[in-house]
Write a structure and sequence with these properties.
single chain; alpha/beta; Rossmann fold; 2 domains; four-stranded parallel sheet; 9 strands
């Protein structure tokens, strides 16, 4: 596969999966001390990844779970935020300006406990963090999901909302094989898609349910930030209330189909696109998940989505555009 080190990928995934128990132990400590609700707070791709946990929480637990933009919450506050809230944050570098500012604001105003996905405990965010979530590598959104899984599903398990935690951990052990297989299966399609659409003046990306954060992340962080491509991300549930009017024979449209409860909305969009669109790409994440148990498929779907989209498609866009994924015009280049 193009630009893919399989041995390194397998090693890092295994190391990250092996930290699941550390997250569960943190969940035990936090549950023993008690908490009133959970706030996921970050910016950019990290808060996009966190949207998945908020969505799954609606379906599995009565624990109030919120995903908030760090730059907003310090200005608006939140009436459910209190001294007993558990804050889950993320900044791999540990110095994301808005996230660090939000952590300081939370500590100064509420004194909440903060669990952070951060590489260094000595970073600005790390120093404000009570519980450091294990993260073994800097790059790769799949590792971010895996970093949070132990803590989040440990908390739900201890709240009697996720009794199948041991079976879930066994499913995680399949991921090195299954994620490599998923990328191998999508490699040729990704090359073909990128060659066809890398010069598109406008790309519409549609998805929803447990994958909405993934659609938002891929369009904003990968295509816009890293490739300078003009995109629009739209929820399947909202597509028929505005965006459908932009579809014609010249519109380049991508639909990423989820595997959970919202899949019926994706099916409806697919039927419309097949009738009225000409340049349509359907990526069904279910096709790439192998023998993952149906009970855990919605939880793990974003991990597979990031493997095929970020892991394969972004690499081929980079190859065709000649625009290095690490090249930025503005982001972190100067103060703004």
């Amino acid at each position: 596969m193009y630009n893919f080190n399989e041995a390194e990928y397998r090693t890092n995934l295994t190391r990250q999966i092996d930290t699941f128990g550390q997250g569960v132990e943190l969940a035990k400590e936090i549950t023993k001390d008690g908490y009133s609700n959970i706030f996921f707070i970050a910016v950019g791709g990290t808060v996009a990844m966190m949207m998945h946990f908020e969505e799954i929480a609606k379906q599995l637990t009565t624990i109030p779970v919120y995903a908030e933009q760090a730059g907003e919450i310090v200005l608006t506050g939140h009436r459910h935020l209190n001294r007993d809230s558990l804050i889950i944050m993320g900044s791999k570098s540990g110095d994301t300006k808005e996230t660090v500012a939000a952590a300081k604001w939370i500590k100064d105003n509420y004194g909440c406990r903060i669990a952070s996905m951060v590489i260094s405990k000595e970073s600005p965010l790390g120093r404000l963090t009570d519980y450091q979530l294990p993260l073994v590598v800097f790059k790769g959104v799949e590792y971010e999901y895996l970093s949070v899984f132990g803590l989040f599903y440990g908390l739900l398990h201890l709240h009697n909302d996720f009794p199948q935690i041991n079976a879930f951990e066994e499913q995680l052990k399949k991921l090195p094989d299954l994620l490599v297989a998923a990328q191998a299966k999508f490699d040729a399609p990704a090359a073909k898609i990128a060659a066809r659409y890398y010069q598109s003046p406008y790309l519409m990306w549609i998805g929803g349910g447990e994958l909405w954060g993934e659609i938002y992340l891929f369009t904003m962080c990968i295509l816009e930030e890293m490739q300078w491509m003009k995109t629009k991300s739209i929820k399947s549930s909202e597509f028929f209330h505005g965006t459908l009017e932009l579809v014609d024979e010249n519109t380049d449209v991508f639909l990423v189909k989820s595997v959970g409860a919202a899949r019926a909305l994706d099916d409806r969009v697919e039927r419309f696109l097949n009738q009225y669109g000409k340049n349509v790409v359907i990526i069904d994440i279910k096709d790439y998940m192998g023998d993952i148990d149906d009970a855990f498929a919605p939880i793990l779907a974003p991990v597979f989505s990031t493997a095929v989209l970020n892991g394969r498609l972004s690499k081929y866009f980079e190859k065709n555009t000649g625009h290095d994924l690490n090249m930025r015009r503005y982001y972190r280049q100067f103060d703004y």
